[in-house]
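QA checklist item 7 of 12: single-chain prediction sanity check.
[x] sequence parsed
[x] length recorded as 401
[x] structure emitted
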Amino acid sequence: MMDVRDSSVCIIGGAGRVGLPLGISFALVGVPTTLIDINETAIAEIQAGRFPFKEEGGEQALPQALKSGNLRAVSGPASVIGESDIVVLVIGTPVDEYLNPRLADLFAVIDGYLPYFRDGQVLLLRSTVYPGTSERLQRYFNSKGCKVQVAFCPERIAEGEALLELVALPQIVSAFDENARATVCRLFAKVTKSDVIELAPFEAELSKLFSNAWRYIKFAVANQFYAMATQRGVDYARLYDAMVRGYERNRDLPSPGFAAGPCLFKDTMQLAAFSQNHFFIGHAAMLVNEGLPQFLIEHIKERLCDDLHKKTIGILGMTFKADSDDPRDSLSFKLRKLALIEAKEVLCHDPYLPQEGLTPLDDLIERSDIVIVATPHTQYRALERGRLAGKIVVDLWRALP
């Protein structure tokens, strides 16, 4: 049984938002770690000590990890996989246009790298997978006569805060082989200051999906409450404040807002497929959350502005969550498409995205008749109320002063 002190780690997809913080965390506790990624631009940034995306503490941690000698980043060759004892794969299971899991992508990656694996390695799956994928992958290696042990250790971090949460949060680990499970337990015990929780692989897969679906459902409840109140002309912000202020039983009720990003919707739909489409509350949550942009446009058109076709809409925030530079699956883009159907013109701003195709903030405020806060970036909280005088403002996040 390998000792983690003598183990080395390779992370496939290591330049991404899951792999890079994980690799830095390993390197900083003395684990020799190689990041491999086909994104040559991101690899070059990492090699130069620059974080390729927004990550709390990243600009300080990356140079420290490189200086330690425990971290290197390469775009090839894939032969570095064979040099490592533990191979981490951060490619999960996406869903297709019919909301069904697409396993072929994961197995295509494994097929491409299979010649570089060697007997005695541990393949550690880190991203969310469809239930049973770990077992299926273990059978695949067995059928190829490749003595690689599969482990599933789901990431549990909030994007942009990975370096902080990897240390603070309990880590769930699982594997089919007892020695492999002990190996990954020791690996994550070096990183986290909290617990290492052992589960069977199938249990670990479900724990990740259940956790993300629970968050998605909670956001849907908040968004449904917001829509119900707003349709009746009630200021939901006042209700929300009254419900949660000093009342512990309601402290877990989120504020309304776009529930988006690369995980929550996708993972809820994976559970729906897993339950043979009997996950009714998950489907209901999807309809509420994905329908919120349409609700906002209809609310503006029916209650706030009867000549929307003559008006300019300004959308503040295009990334999927506040103070993030990640636009993946952001509902702000869906909002823009819907607004373009109804309004004369649609302008968009985001401080964290390349400005091509976006409008400077001052110009957006000056030219817009209607301002919608789609993503509550901290920058918007500093806007003076006087600058929005005479405009219709839709701020379900309560982000503006």
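[x] summary fact logged: The domain at 4-199 is CATH 3.40.50.720 (Rossmann fold).
[ ] second reviewer sign-off
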